[in-house]
TrEMBL record:
Record GO terms (molecular function): lyase activity
Organism: Haloferax namakaokahaiae
Transmembrane regions: 27-49, 55-76, 83-106, 126-147, 159-182, 202-220
The name this protein goes by in its record: Bisanhydrobacterioruberin hydratase
UniProt KW Chloroplast keyword: no
Length: 290
């Protein structure tokens, strides 16, 4: 078998191969995909795309997985048994709290999914962990870098990450509601809305973020995370995708506060000194070109 086609024989070989794959396709993964995703989602919401392209569940899940790949590949070598247990427990929690939310209205407020996000179990999309857990991990990694030595203080670290996760939802939820991903209902006359999102949603995210951050803080070794971050320049590229995708969607719908918050995440990425500005340079050749 040719050298370039040889399958990896060990876990380390597989991890190295995945690192190369992501590293060589950073622009496509973290700029091209979110830009196209934003265009397709807005076009779907505006009724400009015909079925089956409009809000195609497969394309949404596939695109999300591609944009998540820098983070997933980055943390893969750090998955010890403890990490597997922690992430597994967090996955179970994500399903449980989402099911509770759509059946009882707690803790986010009453809502329902307005579009098909793929196969579901008891009304909960099976792809939910792919949507939720990486948000928390991105916030965790960003805070570790921005806090520096202050991240050693447990209280400072946890509070900072929880607030960062909450800020990510300030960007995500208004954009998702504008697209029609989900919609809140049973809102009282005195309900205070933030771009169509009730404040109860953010109170619920404080609860979920706290549990998720505690789980990840227990599951992963911080020193190992920082070492991996130091040697893996693409590890926060999923956050680049987040800024481009949801910043663009919110800008289209005129949700300017979420756009500003998305911009603050972009500034935070630059301040980490881990963001490679070469990512934004258009490659001479795209991966699909011969």
């Amino acid at each position: 078998m040719a050298e370039g086609l040889r399958l990896p024989r060990t876990r380390r070989d597989a991890e190295a191969a995945l690192d190369r794959l992501v590293r060589e396709n950073r622009f496509t993964i973290s700029v091209f995909f979110p830009l196209n995703g934003a265009v397709l989602l807005v076009a779907s919401a505006m009724g400009w795309l015909p079925d089956p392209l409009a809000f195609n569940a497969f394309l949404i899940l596939f695109g999300t997985l591609v944009m998540r790949s820098p983070l997933l590949v980055g943390v893969l070598p750090l998955f010890t048994r403890r990490a597997v247990v922690g992430v597994g427990a967090l996955t179970a929690y994500a399903y449980a709290i989402e099911y509770t939310g759509i059946t009882t209205g707690w803790p986010y407020g009453w809502f329902y999914y307005g579009i098909d996000l793929g196969p579901t179990v008891a009304g909960v999309p099976i792809g939910l962990p792919v949507f939720f857990i990486p948000l928390v991990m991105n916030a965790y990694l960003l805070c570790l870098l921005l806090l520096g030595s202050r991240a050693q203080n447990t209280l400072i670290r946890l509070v900072a990450v929880i607030l960062t996760v909450l800020a990510m939802d300030v960007v995500l939820d208004p954009g998702a509601v504008s697209l029609g991903f989900w919609e809140y209902y049973r809102l009282g006359e005195d309900a205070i809305l933030f771009y169509g999102v009730p404040l109860s949603n953010y109170a619920g995210w404080v609860v979920s973020a706290t549990i998720a951050v505690l789980a990840l803080d227990w599951a992963f070794d911080r020193s190992a995370l920082l070492t991996r971050l130091d040697s893996t320049e693409f590890m926060l590229d999923d956050l680049v995708s987040f800024v481009i995708l949801w910043g663009g969607i919110n800008a289209w719908f005129g949700n300017w506060i979420p756009v500003v918050v998305a911009g603050l995440f972009g500034i935070g990425l630059l301040k980490t000194d881990r963001f490679d500005s070469r990512l934004l340079r258009i490659p001479r050749r795209f991966p699909w070109q011969s």
